[in-house]
Amino acid sequence: MKVTTFEELKNRHLGKIGTPERDAYEAEVREAIQTYHIGEAIKAARRERNMAELMGVKKAQVSRIERGDNPTLHTITRAFNALGMTVSLTCGNMHIALS
User: Fold this and answer.
1) pTM higher than the cut 0.70
2) Please, is 58 exposed, middle or buried when counting C-beta atoms within 10 Å of its C-beta (0-12, 13-18, 19+)?
3) What is the pLDDT of residues 53-81, one digit of tens each?
4) Closest Cα partner for 79 from 57, 47, 48, 96?
5) 52 with 64: CB under 8 angstroms?
6) What residues does 94 pair with on adjacent strands?
């Protein structure tokens, strides 16, 4: 019985690293992981505090962020401000502090 690794499957179906299809896939995975981590950080803080009240939004919106439903930069900024944390964005050589 031949065992195929996940890396081999990705190479076969998406192309090797460096091809446009594979790079797009890898970028999408990285974005999903980052969104998940943001949601988990907010969920942990919510359990300690009333996040919706601190953010000035409805509980359903906090829930959507926790599930990774594509939050906006404005919403992420409000969430981390409610946690007493600053948010910054780095684009190339540019560093922007959001508040």
Assistant:
1) no
2) exposed
3) 777 777 787 777 777 777 777 877 877 77
4) 57
5) no
6) 91
